[in-house]
Amino acid sequence: MLHLSARRVGSLLARRATAALSTSSARMASHDVAQAADMSQPMYWDRLDTPLPDKPFKDVLTAADKSLKQKEKGPWSQLTKEEKIALYRMSFCQTYPEMKQKTSEWKTVIGGMFIFLGFTGLVVWWQRIYVYPPHPRTFDEEWQAKQLKRMLDMRINPVEGFSAKWDYEKGQWK
Amino acid sequence: MFRAAVRLSVSGVRSLTRTQPRCQAVLTSRCYSHGKQETDEEFDAHWVTYFNKPDIDAWELRKGMNTLIGYDLVPEPKILEAALRACRRLNDLASAIRILEAVKDKSGPHKEIYPYLIQELKPTLDELGISTPEELGIDKV
Questions:
Q1: Residue A23 CB: number of other CB atoms within 10 A?
Q2: Which N-terminal stretch is annotated as signal sequence (chain B) (predicted)?
Q3: Residue B108, SS3?
Q4: One domain for residues A81 and A116
Q5: Which residue of chain A is at minimal alpha-carbon distance from B101?
Q6: Residue A167, helix vs strand vs coil
Q7: Please, are residues A87 and A79 in contact by the beta-carbon 8 Å criterion?
């Protein structure tokens, strides 16, 4: 997926817009593109807060379905369990328990997060090696030691802070 | 019985039941803080009247049910009974079963509500021949 988008970006930069569009649309046409739903018509959806959607699930009824629908007009106690379930499935796609099923989507999300974090870590590491300039000399061990001695000699924060923690008689930290 | 304090306006519903003279007298359910609050009994009566309309059509049933499920409450058995009878008039068994599933979901963590509703609705369910989702085995995945 990553190299595909990189290639698209490369083609957009390198070629003209029309050529790039024809390349990407040709790639899309080779996949199975889902039919776009006609949103001007009443739609079906499974939602916990909308028990009765705008249209039944099955639009095209077979002859058996139609005869069952006729039977539905009579007393419902004459319907068998299987017929009742068939009538339910004609009108609705998923039952409430099926709608409320847990998915494993969270694994995809967390996994994707870690992949991108890891990739970022690699990028930062590469930067550390190839991009960052050398350290200032004030970071050297020797310089830091001399700096520390100078601070103690100047008695920086002698009452409660820095030098207060240094034992001047013994020449060590308290 | 299982009510939250806040009610949504049922003005949209009332406009559909304009032909029922009883409903015109009830103007207490708008979302004002200064107006009279609709009581539980008035709310129930509203909805029972709505579903008891003899020539209710499929759209009104769907709209009523979806609105009712949108409220922060589990409907009283008498409202559900009226809705189930409306399904019978419309020859729609699937919607009747769906209504039972929906109220079970509405009860949320309160597992004792749904058995109570089924117990109260048993006479109606038997009379109309509606099977519960449990009887049909579609309450499990």
A1: 15
A2: none
A3: coil
A4: no
A5: A96
A6: strand
A7: yes
* Buried b or exposed e, range A97-136, using 16+ CB within 10 angstroms: eeeeeeeeeeeeeeeeeeeeeeeeeeeeeeeeeeeeeeee
How many domains in chain A? 4
Residue A46 placed within a domain? no
Question: Do A66 and A85 fall within a single domain?
Answer: yes
Say yes or no: A28 and A12 in one domain. yes
CA A174, CA A120: separation in Å to the nearest integer?
A: 42
Query: Does residue A77 lie within any of the structural domains?
Result: yes
CB B38 within 8 A of CB B44: no
Q: Is residue A126 located within the same domain as residue A145? A: no
Cβ distance A91 to B141 less than 8 Å, yes or no, reads no
Please give, rounded to a whole number of angstroms, the shortest distance from the CA of B34 to a CA of chain A.
30
Per the structure, the complete domain to which residue A10 belongs is given by: 1-41
Question: CA B114 to CA B87: how far, in whole Å?
Answer: 20
**Is A114 within a domain?**
yes
Q: Do residues A91 and A120 both lie within one domain?
A: no
Q: Does A98 touch chain B (CB under 8 A)?
A: yes
Q: Which residues pair with A173 in a beta bridge?
A: A166
With CA atoms as reference, the chain B residue closest to A87 would be B94
If asked whether residues A70 and A96 sit together in one domain, one would say: yes
Per-residue pLDDT 10s for chain A (174 aa) are 555 555 555 555 555 555 545 554 445 555 666 778 888 999 999 999 999 999 999 988 999 999 999 999 999 999 999 999 999 999 999 999 999 999 999 999 999 999 999 999 999 999 999 999 999 999 999 999 999 999 999 999 999 999 999 999 998 998
ipTM of the modeled complex: 0.75
